């Protein structure tokens, strides 16, 4: 489902929230975040992984066969960027929009291009795509 919300699109039902239970918090084995086929190119999804010993929400963004990930924490006021779990706003020009106060982020480096945290960036998290799945490897946290 895709709805218009002002200048942004709501990617409801695309990607969405992904929960995995392959790893217990603190384990260093790779964590399966999402099956690539469940995240259409150009959309966002949310998954959880242990980062620095804490269970954290991640924003995943797929572009072709490539997936980028950031902590789901806005540099403005520390809020999640999704308006409901796994539901992210994307502007017509392809920017990720924080649902809290409307900051916009480009999807290459996660830098805020407009809004109250302009010039700051989301924290990038290293993920790998392997065998049609997206993984976080604890040693690759970044
Ligand atoms: S918390 Fe994201 S713009 Fe304010």
What can you see in these coordinates?
Strand 9 and strand 10 (104-105) form a beta hairpin. The relative contact order is 0.20. This protein is mainly β and 142 residues long. The chain has strands spanning 2-5, 8-11, 16-18, 31-35, 44-51, 54-63, 66-71, 89-91, 96-97, 104-105, 112-114, 128-130, 133-136. It is built from no helices and 13 strands. The protein has one domain (2-140): Rieske Iron-sulfur Protein. Bound molecules: FE2/S2 (inorganic) cluster (FES). FE2/S2 (inorganic) cluster is lined by residues 74, 76-77, 79, 98, 100-103, 115-116.
CATH class division: Mainly Beta
The shape, in one word, is globular
What small molecules does this complex bind? FE2/S2 (inorganic) cluster
Please give the order of strands in the largest beta sheet: 1-2-8-9-10-11
**Would you identify the CATH H-level superfamily?**
Rieske [2Fe-2S] iron-sulphur domain
Question: What percent of residues are in strands?
Answer: 35-45%
Number of DSSP strand runs? 13
Helix content: under 10%
Poorly predicted spans: 1-13, 20-27
The topology string of helices and strands comes to EEEEEEEEEEEEE
**CATH fold-type name:** Rieske Iron-sulfur Protein
Estimate nothing, just give the exact number of structural domains.
Answer: 1
Main sheet, how many strands, which sense, barrel?
6 strands, antiparallel
The whole-number mean of residue pLDDT values reads 86
Radius of gyration: 14 Å
By CATH, the architecture is named 3-layer Sandwich
What is the number of helical segments per DSSP (H or I, 4+ residues)? 0
Alpha-beta classification? mainly beta
Q: Termini distance?
A: 33 Å
């Amino acid at each position: 489902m895709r709805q218009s919300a002002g200048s942004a699109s709501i990617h409801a039902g695309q990607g969405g929230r992904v929960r995995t239970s392959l790893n217990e918090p603190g384990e260093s084995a790779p964590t399966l975040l999402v099956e690539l086929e469940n995240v259409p190119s150009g959309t966002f999804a949310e998954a959880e992984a242990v980062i620095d010993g804490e269970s954290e929400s991640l924003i995943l963004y797929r572009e072709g066969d490539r997936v980028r990930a950031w902590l789901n924490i806005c540099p403005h006021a520390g809020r999640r960027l999704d308006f409901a779990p796994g539901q992210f706003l994307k502007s017509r020009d392809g920017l990720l929009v924080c649902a809290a106060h409307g900051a916009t982020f480009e999807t290459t480096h996660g830098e805020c291009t407009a809004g109250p945290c302009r010039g700051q960036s989301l924290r990038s998290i290293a993920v790998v795509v392997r065998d049609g799945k997206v993984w976080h490897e604890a040693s690759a946290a970044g």
